[in-house]
Give the backbone structure.
Amino acid sequence: MNIFLSFINIILGSLIYFRFNSYEESIYLFFSSFLIFLFNCYLRFDNFLFLFRNLTLGIIGFVPLLIKFIYGPETSFYFGEPDLQIFDLCLKMYFCTVIALLSSEIGLELGKYSSSYTPHANYLSTNAIKSENDNWLIISLVCIPIIILVAYLTSISAGPPIWQASYTSEGQGQLLGNLQSIGVICLLAYYVGSQKANWKYKNSILILLVFIFLIWGMAIRGLRQDVISAILGLVFCYSLIKGKDFKINLTSIIIIFIAYIFFEMLGAARTLATVSNISIWEIFIVAFEFLTPKGLETGFNLANQNFFLFDTNVQVVMPGTLGPIAKTFSTTIFLVDQNYIDYQFGKTYFEYLLRSPPEFLYPGRPEDYAWMFLKYNTITIGGFFELAEIYFNFGILGMFFMPGIISFLISYVYEKAKRTQSILHYFLLFSFLGSLFRGAWYQTFAFYKTFLTSMILLLFFLLIIFIFETIKKNVINKNLKFID
């Protein structure tokens, strides 16, 4: 059903893009397409990971055009450069997105099908599938000091809490760009391992680690992305260790809504919390102020905090982080279509290999393409959205296969982990869960980098397990000789 509805959406998208492509003609077809997208998301309520994949992929292309239809064709979805947010660019973003969603749906289903021959591990319906040896126990024990160390290093690199200094204003930088991913992977590995080893105080230690790493190490310092990835990863693993999918229900929707409000407020608070006498209510107002049309002639002014004073006659509706991420998509389409940059035909993906070593080991490695926008004097907050990178490489044709490849890999390793419960497949899955939000919106390279991190950690844990088993075997042999 999901694939069929996505195919219908491509038909509607083609009619809008090639035939009924004026503002007045396309409005009803677009809203029909948007409802189909929402219904497709509803059909994925039986698997939260697959829902997250398609929702984060699709909403970037739908929302900018939705803003145009609700608030008027001249309304922008990000501050500055309205010429890079015109209706025609939003139309192409939407058309690319409906193609990408069909590709993604096919990839998700092929991933499930390819792993369907793997038999399910035996499990109890309400409990985690237990480990048959001490491997998960050893992994979970080793993860504890690593998580604490990463939390400490993150606290140094991110700077003081946001009520003492503005976000990253006094941070010292970090040696490894994937430092937080190491912590997230280890937190997920601890959770899975402790549940399978059935520790007596496993949940108490989990709560302590969550506080040290997610709250003290990141959240109070304004870091959001990796906190969200860690929380979502724990949610997915909660059902996965039982051999099940996490299903969305009314309670889940309420919790997700509350979490959305909290993280949007955190985004505002990390800039405003240092303002004297500011209240929680004022932070809430600022966090959601730009969900309503706002002219920039007054800018954004709260206790002398001034931002976004560009294009003074433009009306803007900015839906949180979604706005600037969508801006990377529209800007990339503009730069390619206007021949400022050429199609790369896969070059940016090949350069993942060259960008693998840390910068301090390979200072001459290719530059992050998120910096490309500054070279053309365009405004973004960083990141290089997945579909923007695909368009940069292959244009619209790339939408037919690249999202499907990524979705296939996610689906395949997820289903393998669910069915085999093996350490290898869990760590392959952590390649995605370790940077889930960052990889979904900021750049696909984050998934690749987290994959390398996850595999290095796996090799490290396997070495520890080998050493433990060797020592254990030697001790047993010595005891047997002593008895003889």
The radius of gyration is 24 Å. The beta strands are 294-295, 300-302, 305-307, 315-316. Residues 445-483 form the longest helix (39 residues).
